[in-house]
Amino acid sequence: MYTALRLQRRLKRELERGEVDITVVTPDPYMTYQPFLPEAAAGAISPRHVVVPLRRVLDRCRVVIGEATAVDHAKRTATITTLATEEEGTGGQQLTYDELVLAPGSVSRTLPVPGLADHGIGFKTVEEAIGLRNHVIEQMDIASSTRDPAIRDAALTFVFVGGGFAGVEALGELEDMARYAARYYHNIRPEDMKWILVEASDRILPEVGEEMGRYTVTELRRRNIDVRLQTRLESCADRVAVLSDGARFPTRTVVWTAGVKPHPVLAATDLPRNDRGRLRCTAELAVEGATHAWAAGDAAAVPDVTAGEPGRECAPNAQHALRQAKVLADNIVHTLRGEPLQTYEHAYAGSVASLGLHKGVAHVYGRKLKGYPAWFMHRAYHLSRVPTFNRKARVLAEWTLAGLFKREIVSLGSLEHPRAEFELAAGGKPSQDPPHNPKGSS
Prior knowledge:
The protein is α/β, with parallel strands linked by helices. It folds into two domains: 2-105 and 262-336, FAD/NAD(P)-binding domain, CATH 3.50.50.60; 116-258 and 350-404, FAD/NAD(P)-binding domain (3-Layer(bba) Sandwich). It contains 14 helices and 23 strands. The chain has helices at residues 2-10, 12-16, 37-42, 54-57, 85-88, 116-119, 126-145, 149-155, 165-181, 210-222, 318-336, 372-385, 389-404, 420-425; strands at 23-26, 30-32, 51-53, 62-72, 77-82, 93-96, 100-102, 106-108, 120-121, 157-161, 194-198, 225-228, 233-235, 240-243, 248-250, 253-256, 260-262, 279-280, 293-295, 300-301, 350-356, 359-364, 367-370. A five-stranded parallel beta sheet has the order 9-16-10-11-12. A four-stranded mixed beta sheet has the order 1-4-5-6, with no helix packed on it. The chain has a three-stranded antiparallel beta sheet with strand order 13-14-15. It is globular, with a radius of gyration of 23 Å. Residues 13-321 form the FAD/NAD(P)-binding domain.
């Protein structure tokens, strides 16, 4: 989105004259600002304000809602499936191009853990974030209404796998939300809930430094969160989380945030990739050995020219991806105009992470912050980075109102299957919920 946005600004005159055509192929009609997913899950931000509608922002581009299933760069063609492809029954469409930009991002990296595919919940999309919020609140409803202590214990046990940004921030925000919601249940106290963070390495949040990582562990444990380092999830079959240290937790909630991997579409191209499956790129963001092909973000292995050691690559995070997109767009314009390309160069500024309302950690330009200052910096930074003034204003307004009024603790799980009640009323059988659905077997 950022690349197309900059291209339509830089090539405004060419677009008006019909000399240039920009086509954006995307499976969703919006771009998700992922750093806000934890706050959306906690109810601090409306889900609609975490996403940016592409057709409104990219008004000079042709937006195609579909997926690229294959790319033949030698022939400059991409095979596209759209929402109408199955209806038409004609197979994928062939889309030709002159310049190719591959920025599909990444997908969750899963492991062959028994029961994970059946019971695990991801945390990369706004749908998953809202589904997880609904799920947590419904588990509290189950625990409040059941007379079976085993069901109650499983409903109030929440296991998060992965100690990176996604796992720690999601756990911190949701635990904060659930702790607040417990005051409205006559028979649930915050200490009745078990929150468990499982991390295979010996530290969490490596991006904020070792000292801030240790502080985060201390802060989470102070909130009665069970942090287990150097521990793996061995199984979650039969709704029992079995850990490598021998611990067993009956649970209805397993959130998987243990890393990402490049998007599968990269394997369906004839472009060079490294051993991790990312596209090998130059410092100008061009794909190595392939003219007129470009990449950025999680899908691209871009040399870090600011690093003192050779072979170092830019970290696959939003900080680099956002800046790479602008340089990539500029270099495409330079190519079209026969101008020299510019090198992507950005020294890593640091990281900020939220641990819940008024709690956070930060390591920015060598300075270490924790607590309220880090939380405030987290919000200020991401507010400045979320695209469009419209979204900035709406998010700021929601934060302001949230400071004046109480949290919302309503579960809207029925939104995920809106026809279920009508199907039942019409005499039919409601469709079965998918495994990850809060009303299903999660």
